């Protein structure tokens, strides 16, 4: 628990550039990999009952929100938010996809507890709103990037969302339309394949 908390805290100090072989390069790729790997660990990390529901995931989301190494419309930040949606949607499952032997994960601790599920739904909504705001901001500054990110968001929504819910289905259609709005014919073709 303490190790994960420290790792999340240290991420807030991640530099915008790092030196590799004597050259300064963007740290986005390395930051993305590190945070995504940490999220994979958080899938099985049990909550501390004294700290609240998914407090480590919440802390990580706050760190991603306030990282100074990102621009306001950073593609990496949006991709991390999309990955956070995947982490949270995994937490809703009755049985998590993997476990550590002899460690009770949140599926055992919470089961189908209504408060736990409601808390996750609220967090999912807030993160979706952040992603949507970034997509709106990109409409005038970089419509092609907006289209690419909307397509990525769409594919994750299809994989992790409940498309039997009318709101979710409508949202997926809107994301698809947005992704197609500024995409090239090649992008449209590859999205269908």
UniProtKB/TrEMBL annotation:
Keywords assigned: Endosome, Protein transport, Transport
Main subcellular localisation: other
Gene Ontology CC terms: endosome
InterPro entries for the chain: VPS35L (IPR029705)
Subcellular locations according to the entry: Endosome
GO terms, biological process: endocytic recycling; protein transport
Sequence similarity: Belongs to the VPS35L family.
Protein name listed in UniProt: Uncharacterized protein
Organism: Rotaria magnacalcarata
């Amino acid at each position: 628990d303490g190790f994960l908390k420290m790792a999340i805290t240290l991420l807030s100090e991640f530099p915008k550039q790092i030196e590799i072989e004597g050259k300064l390069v963007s740290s986005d790729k390395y930051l993305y990999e590190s945070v995504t790997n940490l999220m994979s660990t958080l899938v099985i990390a049990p909550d501390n009952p004294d700290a609240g529901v998914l407090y480590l995931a919440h802390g990580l989301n706050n760190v991603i929100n306030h990282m100074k190494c990102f621009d306001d419309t950073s593609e990496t930040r949006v991709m991390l938010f999309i990955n956070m949606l995947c982490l949270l949607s995994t937490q809703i499952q009755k049985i998590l996809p993997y476990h550590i032997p002899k460690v009770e994960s949140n599926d055992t601790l919470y089961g189908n507890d209504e408060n736990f599920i409601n808390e996750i739904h609220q967090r999912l909504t807030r993160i979706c709103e952040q992603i949507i705001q970034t997509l709106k901001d990109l409409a005038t500054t970089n419509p092609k990037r907006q289209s690419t990110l909307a397509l990525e968001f769409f594919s994750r929504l299809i994989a992790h969302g409940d498309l039997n819910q009318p709101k979710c289905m409508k949202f997926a259609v809107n994301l698809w339309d947005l992704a197609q709005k500024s995409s090239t014919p090649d992008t449209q073709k590859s999205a269908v394949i």
